[in-house]
Amino acid sequence: MFETWELLWLQNYWWGIVSLLGGFLAMMLFVQGGQALIPSLGKNEADKTLLYNVFGRKWELGFTTLVLFGGAVFAAFPLFYAVSFGGAYFAWMALLFVYIVQAVSYEYRTKKGNVYGSGVFETFLSINGYLAPFLIGVIIATMFSGSPFMIDGTRYTQWMASTRGLEALSIPFNLLGGISVVLVSRVLGMLYITNSVREESIIRIIERKRIKETIITVAFLGAFALWIFLLPGAASMNGQISIEPNRYLHTFMQYPLSIFLPFVIGLGLFVFGAFKGAKIGFWFASAGTVMMVFSLLFSTGVGGAPFYPSTSDIQSSLTTFNSSGSRYTLAVMGYVSLFVPVVLGYIAYVWRSMARPVTHEEIKNDPFSY
User: Given this model, what pLDDT does residue 354 score?
Assistant: First the structure.
């Protein structure tokens, strides 16, 4: 009995860790949001160079968070990793490709001997700025809308669509999720520029755009959340999985402290930070983003509920019970997770050391300028 209880606790614990990493991944998309804004903010080459250096100092942290998220999923829920990363192959490869394009673009944009010119790599960074958050939003949305896969008794997985994940783009709910994440990343990008740049000409342009984009973003976020609450979802009862009307709304009400309250507080922090702007707005909005995404992801799998529904065979839906690693694996990883604060402390140290406000003069004298 104790071993069973311990396994259930570990499964929920690790689903919480995965959900929290998903929240940090969404927050780190401020880099992509900023990249998408640069063409409209940089009125000359000096301004563009300044802004590319602002975000060039942070892009690696976002990629590291993506890798950490994938690693946690692989270790704690290997069947989920196999089904999602293996089945929705084209969607995940597209996401990884745009991150690779981002890395190459920062490396070669101003590199001596670049025969393509900086404009080509700036275009690549703009593509990454829109496509990376959009794909992440679509992938998150499939955890509510489901994907076409089947699993037999031996855990053999069959993806039922030849488009290998791209079929998610045909579902309006998923598209709304993708657009919502793009808009959130743009608002976070604006706030980070306000927090990091001293050039008044750039700040004035952002101040003219920020309020309008915040209102649009909140409208899309509200529509996405409302759709989630009205969405029927897979629910587990006595080992059988069935479709339950308003499943996610019921889950939010069932777990007010761990799901509903973090979502409401997170939305409030995001709105406050976005409207506040100035130097502190980014931190409020970032914390709000982490809390909102955490509560949404955690709501899909808490208590052993199906967090990845199958649209081909509802009984094949993945839960934390049927997709997790063994008790021994989760327990060992539980001890390893105690070192997470050390990693977060290192990230905070690197962030602080690279986060000083910058000017044109500082960038001009920086030998490592992007």
Answer: 67
